[in-house]
C-alpha cells in the first residue's frame, strides 16, 4: 500500500541536514489541505481504512505475543506484594488460583484464609487505586499501566 502526498510548503524548517523530520508548525505552512466530502466518502468506501486498522491490530497483537514468551520459569521475581502459590510455576500450575484483592487490608484477610485452605494452590495479589478498564483503553495506556503489566506477567507464567 502506498500513499503519496504532494505538498508545497513555504519556508520549511527541518531538524537536521538530512531533512527527515519537518519542524515547522502546520499553521505556518502557507496553505491548508481541505478534502472534499466526496473524496472522504470514496476513501471510506474503498476498504483501505479497514485494511490499515486490521494491520495495526495485528501488529499490536504481535507485540503482546512477544511479551508473553513460551519460556517457563518456576517462580516469579520482581512482582511486589505477590504471595504466590507453592505449586505456581510447576506442572500443577494449571490448578492454581490467583486471588486479586482490593488493597493490602483485603490481602491480609485473604492470606489469613489461606491458613484454612492451604497455600499450595492459592496465591494472593493486592490491587491498588482505580483499575483501568482495558476494554476501553488504548494499547498504549494498557501497556504503561503497571498493574496490568504485573497481571500479564502472572498470566503468562500459567
Descriptive report:
- This protein is 39% helix and 8% strand.
- The chain has a two-stranded parallel sheet.
- The mean pLDDT is 78.
- It contains 5 helices and 2 strands; from the N terminus they run H-H-E-H-E-H-H.
- It is elongated, with a radius of gyration of 25 Å.
- It has a domain at 93-157.
- With 158 residues, it is mainly α.
- Residues 1-67 form the DNA topoisomerase type IIA subunit B domain.
- It catalyses: ATP-dependent breakage, passage and rejoining of double-stranded DNA.
- Keywords: ATP-binding, DNA-binding, Isomerase, Nucleotide-binding, Topoisomerase.
Helicity, as a percent range? 25-40%
Beta strands, count: 2
Order of helices and strands, N to C? HHEHEHH
What strand order characterises the main sheet? 1-2
The N- and C-terminal alpha carbons lie at a distance of 39 Å
Instruction: Please identify the structural class as seen in this structure.
Output: mainly alpha
Any low-confidence stretches, pLDDT <50, length ≥5? none
Number of helices: 5
CA-based shape: elongated
Strand residues, percent: 5-15%
Please state the CA-atom Rg, rounded to the nearest Å. 25 Å
User: For the report, how would you describe the main beta sheet?
Assistant: 2 strands, parallel
Overall mean confidence score, pLDDT: 78
Amino acid at each position: 500500500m502506498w500513499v503519496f502526498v504532494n505538498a508545497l510548503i513555504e519556508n520549511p524548517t527541518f531538524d537536521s541536514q538530512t531533512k527527515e523530520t519537518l519542524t515547522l508548525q502546520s499553521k505556518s505552512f502557507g496553505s491548508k489541505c481541505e478534502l472534499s466530502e466526496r473524496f472522504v466518502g470514496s476513501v471510506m468506501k474503498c476498504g483501505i481504512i479497514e485494511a490499515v486498522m486490521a494491520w495495526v491490530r495485528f501488529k499490536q497483537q504481535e507485540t503482546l505475543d512477544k511479551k508473553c514468551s513460551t519460556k517457563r520459569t518456576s517462580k516469579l521475581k520482581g512482582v511486589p506484594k505477590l504471595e504466590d502459590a507453592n505449586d505456581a510455576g510447576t506442572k500443577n500450575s494449571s490448578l492454581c488460583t490467583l486471588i486479586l484483592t482490593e488493597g493490602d487490608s483485603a490481602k491480609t484477610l485473604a492470606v489469613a484464609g489461606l491458613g484454612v485452605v492451604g497455600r499450595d494452590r492459592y496465591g494472593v495479589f493486592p490491587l491498588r487505586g482505580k483499575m483501568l478498564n482495558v476494554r476501553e483503553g488504548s494499547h498504549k495506556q494498557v501497556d504503561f499501566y503497571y498493574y496490568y503489566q504485573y497481571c500479564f506477567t502472572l498470566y503468562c507464567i500459567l
